[in-house]
Amino acid sequence: MSIAENIAQVYRQIEAAVAKAGRNHDSVRLLAVSKTKPADDVRAAYAAGQRSFGENYVQEGIEKVQALSDLDIDWHFIGPLQSNKTREVASHFDWVHSVDRLKIAQRLNDQRPDDLPPLNICIQVNVSGEDSKSGISPAELPSLVEAISQLPRLRLRGLMCIPAPAEDEAAQREPFHQLAGLLSVLPAGDTLSMGMSGDMEAAIAEGATWVRIGTAIFGRRDYSNH
Ligand SMILES: *Cc1c(COP(=O)(O)O)cnc(C)c1O
Hints:
Elements: H1 3-20, E1 29-33, H2 39-47, E2 52-55, H3 58-67, E3 74-77, H4 86-92, E4 95-99, H5 102-111, E5 119-124, H6 141-149, E6 154-160, H7 169-182, E7 191-193, H8 200-205, E8 210-213, H9 215-218
Parallel strand pairs: 1-2, 1-8, 2-3, 3-4, 4-5, 5-6, 6-7
């Protein structure tokens, strides 16, 4: 199937899940995760109407942002972020979904160029014993929210998680349910970034507003370059 057909298929899945959950039809947005994929694949998705793209690796992401600067794309950084890479992310991306410590947030705030609007931020939370070392614990969330809320060049939008893969829908829903329950900690939280190719229905059932979809749009990834 082509990238355009894959996107249409993902939208059918999203629409079915939204209808089943009794949610508003435009309450879930699709983030196309283009990590490891060439700029031409992003162009193909763009030609099919897709406007929001997610990248995990700073260098690769910046190269694509620059190669595709003729397109009207909003770029989301969704990978682990080290402090020596924050400047490039602050100047080239519209969103960062993976903030999990104050130092990174402070640097993004200080380095966000004045001619750009505030950078949209999600805090990555490590829900229900993920094996990943990324994400802060729910107990530490309130103090991080409080501190990030003081940073004028950031706009704290919501929360993100990457649960360990689970097979059945009940097990998939549990961590998403936990994340959704934490959103009220934010003063103006309107965003739940949760759900990937294998668990988007469960995430939508629990209130996802961004689903981050790579494989179902672009096919399997080849990691040999990373
Ligand atoms: C790779 C990745 C995705 C997309 O995963 P798929 O299973 O390919 O849909 C989503 N979110 C993050 C943070 C990722 O690293």
